[in-house]
Amino acid sequence: MFRNRLTHSLEVSQVSRGIARTLGCHEDLAEAIALAHDLGHTPFGHAGQDALNCCMKNFGGFEHNLQSLRVVDQIESRYANFAGLNLTFETREGILKHCSKKNAKQLGDIGRRFLDQKQPSLEAQIVNIADEIAYCHHDIDDGFRSKILTLKDLQALELFNRFYELVKKLHGLISDDQMMNESLRRMMQFIIVDLCQSSLEKINDLNPKTVDEVRGHPPLVIFSATTSEHIRLVKQFSRESLYNHPKILAMSEKAKAVITKLFSYFMTNPNKLPLDYQQRNNAAQARSIADYIAGMTDRYALAQADNLV
Question: Were both Cys, which of 123, 138, 197, 309 would link to 29 (CB 3.0–4.6 Å)?
Fold first, then answer.
């Protein structure tokens, strides 16, 4: 099985907890942010978000990070006295990884740091980088498992090749799948250890006594300069060899077509929506349709699009 929003969030959560424990931060807070950070992401990843944002251009647009906050603040309805999940400020702030000034002005205290150019908590910084670590590694893994990438392709990455050669020396002739798993997990461990060491140095140098000191300082959870360059090269490799591969581009176009088809259909036929998503005016209806589509899995979106009548 290839990664999806759920498995990605679980991986980010696992990485976040380990880093938080090493840095002496609040593990439960880091886990809560990690598990919620992609709740608002559309089916089909960023291709789906781009398509839904285009559909919503006359109704305020769509951004998955803001949608994640919307899910926990408004869409979830489990309690009689309030909407949302009643999460702590620190959890909600951590979910909001990035935000335009225009949107930040509408979010009150939760958007204040984007206007004041402040940093979030250490736990939010941890999740931001754990997210990066997770997708850099699992995109490569999924690319290999889908046979878009080969071990020979990956050897062009100096960091991957370092561990590939080490595994070959330690284990000799093993299967390509084993070689991939052994090399990639060593690469991931190296990156996480580097992050923890570099971050501990930064935190110990500052020795913050208050959260405000953390917020007013440049990011404290960081890679070393050398590993930062390796991460940049991994992203560049993925962009050139994976994201721009004809097979991936074709899938992205199909994904965009599915999202557009669903949105157009429900705007024309709002009575076909579940009752909870039916609204009285176009703007509210468009937002409600975006909520409905963003909550779909890939498979459900494909099935819905195929079954439209």
Answer: 123
